[in-house]
Amino acid sequence: MKAWLIAGLLLATPVLAQENPMQPSATWDDLRESVVGLTEEPPVDAAILDLDAPIRAHDAAIVPIRLTQPADAPDLTDLILVIDENPAPVAAEYNFGSALMPLDFEVRVRVNAYSDVRAIGTGPDGAQVMAGRFVKASGGCSAPAGKDMTTVMDTMGQMRWKSAQEDGRTIGTLMIRHPNFSGLQRDQVTLLNIPPHFIDTLEVRQGEEMLFTMSAGISISEDPVFRFGYTPNGQPVTVHIEDTDGNSWDQSFDVSG
């Protein structure tokens, strides 16, 4: 339980605004259209979307990313999270329900080299906006797993949920046990490469109403934690998870956590 609490507190600590804006990136110039599918550079506008991240990561395998919007910002329905210099740059693609607006959403990612970390959000009218930070980190995708393989197998798929009131808004925290192996790590006993094995689909709902969905790759951290503000509707929060090995897990939590 202590590990769960530490994970939650890491995201619960506000990320202060940092003087680490995105830097010119030849990598981004190459992948913007070919990988992300953008024919034009989205505008950067903190009045619609902002992204906070540390200037220098304490742990490259667990880098906290916080996406926020001002109270009067237009809604976002979709968002792509990109880490330019990671082996698979698209970290995750999200769909958001209206209950998450205005957005206040946190996730932990792996950063493999000094890189811009950027989010491209899309509104209901198709208008796009971008936000990002330059993060100094390296080796996050190949960092050793935090637990031995026996513990991984025994705990994989376990979930915890808690909710709390902060500044007049309900904050939900979802914690999931999963190694999210990137395929670049080595087993510390056998020294053999561990095959990729990660959560690729996540759906979080309250009753029938979608809170958010995620389609992810290798860049989401081990034992992922998601922390987000939302407007509760009184229905249980349900979670559906699928991973690349064909496993799936479902769990329901009452609104009190």
From TrEMBL:
Residues 1-17 form the signal peptide. Keywords: Signal. Residues 42-141 form the Ig-like SoxY domain. SUPFAM superfamilies: E set domains. It comes from the Bacteria. InterPro entries: Fuse-rel_SoxYZ (IPR030831), Ig-like_fold (IPR013783), Ig_E-set (IPR014756), SoxY (IPR032711), SoxY_sf (IPR038162), SoxZ_dom (IPR014880). Pfam families: SoxY, SoxZ. Residues 163-253 form the Sulphur oxidation protein SoxZ domain. This is Quinoprotein dehydrogenase-associated SoxYZ-like carrier. It comes from Paracoccus tegillarcae.
